[in-house]
Amino acid sequence: MPTSFNESVIEEFRANEGKVGGPFEGGNLLLLTTTGARSGTARTTPLGYVRHGGSLLLVASNLGAPDHPAWYRNLLAHPVVGVEIGTSAYQALAIPAEGARRDELFAHVLREAPGYGDYQAATTRTLPVVVLEPAVPDDGSPREVRTLADKILEVHDQLRLQLGLVTADVDAHFAALAAHEGPGEPPSPSLGLQIRQRCLAFCQALEFHHTSEDGHLFPGMAHYHPHLTDVFDRLRAEHRTVARIQEGLVALLADIGAADPPRFRAELARMTTELTAHLDYEEEKILPLVADVPWPPGTP
């Protein structure tokens, strides 16, 4: 099968520390890996980017075609993406900008790469501007991970932080609605794509973590600690409770324009209560059992 243009660019990029020739020579180029919205398969696409402060901006131009590119539809379904620049590779959270912020960022893009103006002129759709942020929020207190207990606690802390950021966004959304007075266009009552993307990323990370525990960690530990059957039964039951709340949040986010913000806020508060209690209980019962297990596995 002949190699496609994208595949040849990807091969050249990875073989030459991010440097390529042809139409991309000398430009800002990265590789974006998304998860297929329907297939669940990893898809890598070479894309131009523009820097804005500490963030990277992508424009879903599709060369001015009438439809959004596949990579944009994929990141709406799976907000955590892979990014390769030069020799570095990391995960990022992809958040499309909206309203006035989108217009401000697109104006910045045009100052750096005027060609995107031609793509916008060629189509009636508004070209989305996507901001790439760190996928794992940084609380400023790096944790040394040397044991399985450390690793579990690291994941738990990241989940708590992600949930806290979503809650802060939702609180800010309601505060903006409440503060609007007098003339002028009020803030949109819709939850918005930033809340959607952050919450969806949190829900997907939470599901992966609990699925891994149910499928691997808990069965292995139960084999060595049969006297803790009640503990593992409770943890699995709590996973099911949290999963039902998670499914409800994802359902509300399916159509962000039609979502019920008060209901979403109530379900998010319920998630905070249930998940916090679950994580606290799991740390109390499980961490002492794996405090001496090296991480990563096989570490002396």
TrEMBL record:
One of its GO terms (cellular component) is plasma membrane. Belongs to the F420H(2)-dependent quinone reductase family. InterPro entries: F420H2_quin_Rdtase, Hemerythrin-like, Split_barrel_FMN-bd. NCBIfam families: hi_GC_TIGR00026. It catalyses: oxidized coenzyme F420-(gamma-L-Glu)(n) + a quinol + H(+) = reduced coenzyme F420-(gamma-L-Glu)(n) + a quinone. GO terms for molecular function: coenzyme F420 binding; oxidoreductase activity. Residues 149-290 form the Hemerythrin-like domain. This is Cation-binding protein. Pfam families: F420H2_quin_red, Hemerythrin. It comes from the Bacteria.
